Amino acid sequence: MxxxxxxxxxxxVLLFLGxxxxxxxxxxVAVIGLLGALASQIATWNTNLxxxxxxxxxxxxxxxxxxLTIITTILIIILSKGYFEKISxxxxxxxxxxxxxxxxxxxxxxxxxxTMLFIGIEIMSISxxxxxxxxxxxxxxxxxxxxxxxxxxxxxxxLMFGIALIYGFTxxxxxxxxxxxxxxxxGVIAPLFYTGILFILVGMLFKISAAxxxxxxxxxxxxxxxxxxxxxxxxxxxxSFAAFIRLFITCFASLATYLTPTLWIIALLTxxxxxxxxxxxxxxxxxxxxxxxxxxxxxxxxxxxxxxxxSKAIFIYASAYSIxxxxxxxxxxxxxxxxxxxxxxxxxxxxxxxxxxxxxxxxAMCSLAGIPLTAGFFGxxxxxxxxxxxxxxxxxxxxxxNAVIGIWYYFKVIIAMxxxxxxxxxxxxxxGNMALVLFITTMATIILGIFPSILSxxx
Length: 459
Known about the structure:
Elements: H1 2-19, H2 23-42, E1 49-51, E2 56-58, H3 60-79, H4 91-109, H5 114-132, H6 139-170, H7 175-183, H8 191-207, H9 216-223, H10 226-251, H11 256-279, H12 284-304, H13 310-339, H14 350-353, H15 355-369, H16 375-389, H17 393-419, H18 432-450, H19 453-456
Antiparallel strand pairs: 1-2
């Protein structure tokens, strides 16, 4: 709970710093404050702390996912140095909105009451609607914000209606009490309760951009500023999956057979549509958007094969995906700044123009593709083994085929960097904050690919 309070106060402090024109203090204050919030989370390890009449529960599950989202946000904010200044002079507002979104994220990963889940999603979503459209004079950014808002409102309505139906059957919003009501029903469950589950499923599937609720993602990801896209595809997606699995493990695990056919089809569609659509893209950023959809499908396998290892599988996968995505977006931002293009051709000759940056992007692409000795390989390994333990052999086989297909569009970037010539051979330099972030994420990808027990031991 302390972390939520710290981040909320931190956001307000940043707004005051903006009012008093202390622009140089914004970044260090934000990073120091987030490190304090991270320390407060770690300090509560191995304790179960309830707040607000058991509406919020801070246990090890919420701590690991909260810590992951906070660390990811710190890296994104470090990357933001000089980025938002090119869009507007009101940098404090942008950083504050990111922190307010993070407050919603922490509520989502630690909820113990459906009301708190809804509040967390709305705090996060409203902040993201504004951030997607922060380029006021950019039509693509305006379109992204409008699409995100309209589709998000549609999904929120389903989520709220589903929560209402669950309450109508159980008479409570508390997760443990809902689980107890389901357990005592002796299989006699009202049809509207199942309808409520499906409506909640629709709302959550939208947040993770799973098929067939994925259509908004490519346009929003492409139109939003790249750092905001990075935040959406990592922090927001991680929080949505954490909330998703917390809800289903606690309340609906006993009804897994009812949900299996639906989730089976959705997972396969999400993986296939994401990968096949990414193959046809010429824009690197749009390719990453469809890639994000396919990764959501892989993580859905852990919810389909729900069990004691599902949370661990999603956490390891989300960690690997977030780290690699930060590397990819950081380099994309720098290359686009120099080349003025977001196509694959923009990376031509990067291996000569900046060998270190090219190596970092190669490792990130290999991790996203699931190549061994990277964190992404063990992310997929844990997801697939967890699903096979529940006898989903056919779906895992199809997912592996899709993963092999996905290698091609990731390697298009590597081919461009090392095997194609650039018209401009002048060096592309990554210094300061960007160099620091690339070093951290690249080393993390390698270390976690060699020693995955660092993460798995947390569970």
